[in-house]
Amino acid sequence: MSQKEKAQTFRELHKKKELLILPNAWDVPSARIFENTGFPAVATSSAGMMVSLGYQDGETISKEEFLSALNRIARVLSIPLSADIVGGFGETPEEVGRFAGQVIQAGAVGVNIEDFSHATKKLHPVELQLQKIKAIRNQADLLDIPIVINARTDALRFAEGEDKMQEAISRAKAYRDEGRADCVYPMGLVDHDSISRFVRELDFFPVNVMVRKGLPSIPELQKLGVKRISFGPTASYAAMGLLKRISNDLLEKQDFQGLVEGAISIDELNSLAIPRS
What we know:
By secondary structure, the chain is α/β, with parallel strands linked by helices. It has one domain (about 5-235): Phosphoenolpyruvate-binding domains (TIM Barrel, Alpha-Beta Barrel). About 50% of the residues lie in helices and about 10% in strands. It has helices at about 5-15, 30-35, 45-50, 65-75, 95-105, 125-145, 155-160, 165-175, 190-200, 220-225, 235-255, 255-260, 265-270; strands at about 20, 25, 40-45, 80-85, 110-115, 150-155, 185, 210, 230. It starts with a helix and ends in a 6-residue tail after the last helix.
């Protein structure tokens, strides 16, 4: 598929009756494993990718290094790739728009953008965030790539006042109606009743939730009307947890079975660097 066709395919995945399960990769082999397993699209994990390159989650990595890592993943995939661009790597809408254009040129057909500052843990003003989302859409239109914009809000974590849920709903509606976002992502939405309320308040517009402890099962989420579930950094946590367990077994129990059981071969490892034909 061409990049435009990948973007159109990714867009259609959000309109299907079935919930989109979107795995988040952090490097080339993790992305290829997800593709080879059969997922229809892959996203990047900002935390997973940053840490794999020696940075904490956020925007301390240079734009050049971020784009290089993203392009390495995009060029080996034959399925759509969405990029977590954190807060957009810019203070102004113009800066965010330019960076989004570079992200698209690196091969992404979707972006996930946050509405808070990692440094201050404060939400950006709604109007500023709307301008950033619009700037991303304008860049996508200029490049003629119909990307999917997933507008994340961290109002459930950082909103001031008692009614954080209402702030999250209000922001999500603004991002949908004024920002031309294609999907909204309320970070921290976990329990059944809150998810049900949020989806209904958004009139069953595509809502993204993240895999985490306490989240309803996938069939339950489907019944609630959720359209997209992403791994976030959870796959990175799982992979690092496995390495930690087998390392402890080797040092404390002198047992290496965890290291060899279920392992892939050298040929399979090498094949993960080769694009699928």
